[in-house]
Amino acid sequence: MAVREILLLGNPELWKPSKRVTETRSVETREIIGDLASTLSGFRDRNGFGRAIAAPQIGVHRRIIFCNMHDGSFGPAPLINPVIVRSGVEMMELWDDCFSFPDLMVRVRRHAEIDVAYLDESGAEKTITARGDLSELLQHEIDHLDGILATDRAIDGRSFAIRSVIKSS
Predict the structure, then answer these.
(1) Rounded distance, CA 69 to CA 75, Å?
(2) Which end of the chain, N or C, is more open, meaning fewer C-beta atoms within 10 Å of its C-beta?
(3) Topology of 12-168 in CATH?
(4) Quick check: pTM over 0.90?
């Protein structure tokens, strides 16, 4: 599987919604999952961070996310056709980052807990209850599938910072 180029902020492809996957076991789907896993791993090796990537970030408009949490709480695993089926009422504010703008942090509000229904790579239906970091991450990646970036969800016009400023504060 290939490490693919990650589309960067300003590329109009990032704002295009993705199509549902109809064949979870197809060669195309397996190749996309492999490329996402390789690209995530490569990004993490080069930059020291990275927990998940969505197919649109490598220019593929299919509803696939590949997740590999640093703490082992979820993944490595693909989520195919993920849908948020429940959102908790509690909200959290955080600095969000993204492979498509690796030096920019964006202050956003996200649900502290969500339930996500998805298909695994064998086509089995799954549901996960995600809290905290995983909840934020899945909301971010599902937004990518819908053509929404963290920059679109900024709390206000002052909710942007360069990564090094956040690390030092």
Answers:
(1) 6
(2) C
(3) Peptide Deformylase (3.90.45)
(4) yes
